[in-house]
Amino acid sequence: MSGFPCSFSRFHSELCGKYNKHQNDNESIKLVDCNRDVDQHVKYLKLYTVSQGDIKTEADLICRRAGLSNTDLSLFVCPFHRAKLGVYFQRGNSCKHPRHSGKGKLFRSISTAQSQHIFQECGIFIPVGSGNI
């Protein structure tokens, strides 16, 4: 791992590094080289709808989770941020929408459009895929 942080360290509270499930991944790579299949992950989070067709690749998923509306394939991502913003993202058990209260059952995830709308209206960034009631 190089001594420089990856492009996504400014979007995530945790430091760059290795990810425990991929100990052999030691270097940051360009997003253009991120090619893990995201279809099952996107379906599991119930993000696969016509209006959210903007997430087609692992690079798209990482960028949307970081709050980027466009995918910049020249950015670098370390193994840790690739995992945490990519297919190993954990949604959690509570609704993250700032205007929702109570403990309802999560049945969908925050979409790209909803994440952008919440940020514009409330000034709070909620990552794509976070829980929503």
Shape: globular
| Main structural class | mainly alpha
Strand order of the largest sheet: 1-2
Mean of the pLDDT scores? 85
Helix and strand pattern: EHHEHEHE
Q: State the helical fraction.
A: 10-25%
Share in β-strands: 5-15%
Distance linking N and C termini: 39 Å
> Sheet bearing the most strands, described?
2 strands, antiparallel
User: What is the tally of helical segments?
Assistant: 4
| Unreliable runs | none
Write a concise synopsis of the structure shown:
The chain has 133 residues and is mainly α. 25% of the residues lie in helices and 6% in strands. It has helices at residues 39-44, 58-66, 79-85, 112-122, and strands spanning 29-30, 76-77, 108-109, 131-132.
Word description of this protein:
This protein is mainly alpha-helical. Helix content is 25%, strand content 6%. The protein has 4 helices and 4 strands; from the N terminus they run βααβαβαβ. It has helices at 39-44, 58-66, 79-85, 112-122; strands at residues 29-30, 76-77, 108-109, 131-132. Strands 1-2 form a two-stranded antiparallel ribbon. A two-stranded antiparallel sheet has the order 3-4.
